UniProtKB/TrEMBL annotation:
Enzyme's top EC category: hydrolase
Organism of derivation: Dulcicalothrix desertica PCC 7102
Taxonomic lineage of the native organism: Bacteria, Bacillati, Cyanobacteriota, Cyanophyceae, Nostocales
Residues annotated as domain Amidohydrolase-related: 45-395
Domain of life: Bacteria
EC number(s) on file: 3.5.4.28, 3.5.4.31
Chain's role: Catalyzes the deamination of 5-methylthioadenosine and S-adenosyl-L-homocysteine into 5-methylthioinosine and S-inosyl-L-homocysteine, respectively. Is also able to deaminate adenosine.
Protein name stated in the entry: 5-methylthioadenosine/S-adenosylhomocysteine deaminase
One Pfam family from the record: Amidohydro_1
Catalytic reaction(s) noted: S-methyl-5'-thioadenosine + H2O + H(+) = S-methyl-5'-thioinosine + NH4(+); S-adenosyl-L-homocysteine + H2O + H(+) = S-inosyl-L-homocysteine + NH4(+)
InterPro entries assigned to the protein according to its UniProt record, in alphabetical order: Amidohydro-rel (IPR006680), Deaminase_MtaD/DadD (IPR023512), Metal-dep_hydrolase_composite (IPR011059), Metal_Hydrolase (IPR032466), MTA/SAH_deaminase (IPR050287)
Length: 433
């Protein structure tokens, strides 16, 4: 995923101290370097790991809990009450482990986690070996462990201060939930803190038509313009969804240099509409891909997001050349890294970058024959084709075997928590059946 998007047949990569030090034909690499460990690649494509720019990882434990609902109904009547009742340290620990297992299995090597209990989430990420931006969510009303904005935001800032620079794979960040759930004064606090501590800031933005109407009514401005009026928009900010910007706002976001994370699965499932991704790309906005949380997706599968992105914008524009395969694959790798401000570290197979790489097996029937590898990765590959996952030069999965997590224990603990949630939320289920 360099600028030329070159494909090296019979290629190899040399890794030292977690970084890529050479990329070339296998013969040249073998003659120039002596490896302590060599990972074979016959029948595989080696590519950068996928970058999931927006998730609420531990929400995998709410997967399938409340489906086929509008966003506001889903949030206010199901998700927020469930979080208040069940989200604690153990919930986040097990949920984060389950999410990391799913993401490693599907070839995601970097993800953004906008949720609660950041110290617990960070410990899981540290142990499993993934790379993550951990952004504890702050919101104006009560959330798990907090009475409202003041204590939640204070805890988030404390996490940033304690965590920044401690682990090169874990970047602390500020997260303001959304313009309709965070007051203007608190949004200003959030961006000022992000500047003070020089960390990223993430926010849900212009996700639904209802949000646009609500913010317009309250502040006499659309969500994007509202943030601009507050001096909020700058390159450290990356916004999730951005389904409803107008033409002038697209130009404004490009000018301000913010990143946008496209979440096609949840946008479709929650009927939020179709984000104008072709127009954003044309304007020069840094666009990455995300899965959102598994309560609204319902999987943390970046391959699904890749394929949907390639397909839905052809349908909405009636243009088969809109968002072509090479553009989408870029969005899932180096484009996502750019949106998150990490392009100097990850996203491409390039000397000097961190060795965050995956191998995808090409021998399954749905990948035969091969004329164009990029086309296959976008339109035919799936999460089950990922064979090997490497982050910072450390192998997290090989031959589809997890090396840093215990899947059986995670499965049992996640099922136990789900059984308790099901029993408490649906006490009359059997009678109703």
């Amino acid at each position: 995923m360099n600028d030329a998007q070159s494909v090296i047949k019979n290629g190899a990569v040399a890794i030292k101290n977690g970084k890529i030090i050479a990329v070339d034909k296998i013969g040249k690499i073998q003659s120039s370097y002596k490896a302590n460990r060599m990972i074979p690649g016959e029948g595989m494509v080696l590519m950068p790991g996928l970058v999931n720019g927006h998730s609420h990882s531990a929400m995998v434990l709410f997967r399938g809990l409340a489906d086929d609902l509008a966003l506001q109904d889903w949030l206010q009547n199901y998700i927020f009450p469930a979080e208040a009742k069940f989200v604690d340290d153990n919930f986040v620990r097990v949920g984060e482990q389950l999410a990391c297992w799913e993401m490693i299995r599907g070839g995601t090597t970097t993800f953004v986690d906008m949720y609660f209990k950041p110290d617990v989430a960070s410990q899981v990420v540290n142990e499993c070996g993934l790379r993550a931006i951990i952004a504890p969510s702050s919101i104006d009303f009560p959330s798990p462990g907090f009475q409202g904005w003041d204590d939640a935001f204070a805890a988030a800032v404390d996490f940033v201060k304690r965590s920044k620079g401690k682990n090169p794979r874990i970047i602390p960040a500020i997260a303001a939930h959304a313009p309709y759930t965070v007051s203007p004064e608190n949004l200003k606090q959030a961006i000022e803190a992000a500047r003070q501590y020089d960390v990223p800031l993430t926010i849900h933005l212009a996700e639904t038509k209802t949000e646009v109407e609500d913010v317009q009514k309250r502040y006499n401005a659309t969500p994007v313009q509202h943030l601009e009026n507050l001096g909020f928009l700058e390159p450290r900010v990356f916004a999730a969804h951005v389904v409803w910007p107008n033409e002038s706002e697209i130009a404004l976001m490009a000018k301000r240099g913010i990143g946008v994370i496209h979440n096609p699965d949840s946008n479709l499932k929650l009927a939020s509409a179709f984000a104008p991704i072709p127009a954003m790309l044309k304007a020069g906005i840094k666009v990455g891909l995300g899965t959102d949380g598994a309560a609204s997706n319902n999987v943390l599968d970046m391959w699904k997001a890749i394929r949907l992105t390639a397909l839905i914008h052809k349908g909405t524009t009636l243009d088969p050349t809109a968002v072509p395969a090479n553009t989408v694959l870029r969005m899932a790798t180096v484009g996502g890294a750019e949106a998150l401000g990490l392009a100097d570290k990850i996203g491409a197979i390039k000397v000097g970058l961190q060795a965050d790489l995956i191998q995808v097996e090409l021998n399954e029937p749905h990948l035969i024959p091969i004329y164009n590898i990029i086309s296959h990765l976008v339109y035919a590959a799936n999460a089950q084709d990922v064979d090997t996952v490497i982050v910072d030069g450390k192998v997290l999965m090989q031959k589809r075997k997890m090396l840093t997590l215990d899947p059986e224990r995670i499965r049992l603990e996640a099922t136990s928590i789900a059984d308790r949630i099901d029993a408490e939320l649906r006490p009359n289920k059997d009678a109703q059946l």
